[in-house]
């Protein structure tokens, strides 16, 4: 399974590249460079989501659920086709933004994700199809497929209504919402259930049913929070708030399951790994509370008018909740060696940038002053993240992976 570990290193390489592009974007504000800022933003976001998160998560799913099947050739075909799509985006987005070639490779990537989903569902062993882990993962994959309706709609929207139409932003928000709430976070939750079941923890079917359907309904309804910037009717605020509340209830059920079995879990993880898991849970709770807050009209308007709050929230979700979740599973299964030094550097970079981004949002909201060194500190904080990733890659060379199912 050495090639599987090499795929994880590829995903970390994408993360490193996305982080370096983030530093470039922050440096551009301090010292302008001969680049198209918007094009680099597109490259940064696509490589972070599709290079880092997608590759790492699908590799974990393959390793844990399918690796005992004779599927290596088929999986490699999907993997390398996906790399072709990512390479195409890397060679097109920085130079043309959303245009012919970048759209072609982005479209091919969507087809690659469909290919992986069909492959996973078709070849998942019958023995796992009734497990709680598989049920969550399958739902996560369907959310990923569903999220692609957003990108598919963009072409028609741009042609008929133009990029200034509210439907353009709504299509992008639809994609992002179901990507991070449905595909990524629910996918990571499926991996957590995988560990619970591997530790022989018995979960009542009734309790799991409550968690699963509460969470799924919450994910669907909370999309309406992404429409509130349009100033819609009151019912959309109620539906969005209900969705956020249901997600929070689902999180509470999951937390209760884990807390009730904390002694078993603590015995299965190192103290360091358990600490990562707890921090990830705290960040997820804060994320859900922020989401619930935006169901109130005042805060919904604030979130849509102060861009730094939106940026801070998205980075909190992707760099905090999702990345720490991936770090935990990659460390636990032996795909990476997450040393305490690299972890501290990463958390420090994450904390500094989040504090500064949210401070700027608060300054815009409450009229606070921006201190003179703000932009330079933001560049410094951002620089810590690629440093941490380089350390992780360096410390991870030569480690073997634990077996899955």
TrEMBL record:
- Signal sequence span per UniProt? none
Instruction: State the superkingdom.
Output: Bacteria
Q: Which UniProt keywords apply?
A: Membrane, Transmembrane, Transmembrane helix
Ranges that cross the membrane: 12-35, 47-66, 78-95, 101-121, 133-160, 172-195, 207-229, 235-255, 276-293, 313-336, 343-368, 374-394
Q: What is this protein called?
A: Cytochrome C and Quinol oxidase polypeptide I
Q: Which organism is it from?
A: Arenibacter arenosicollis
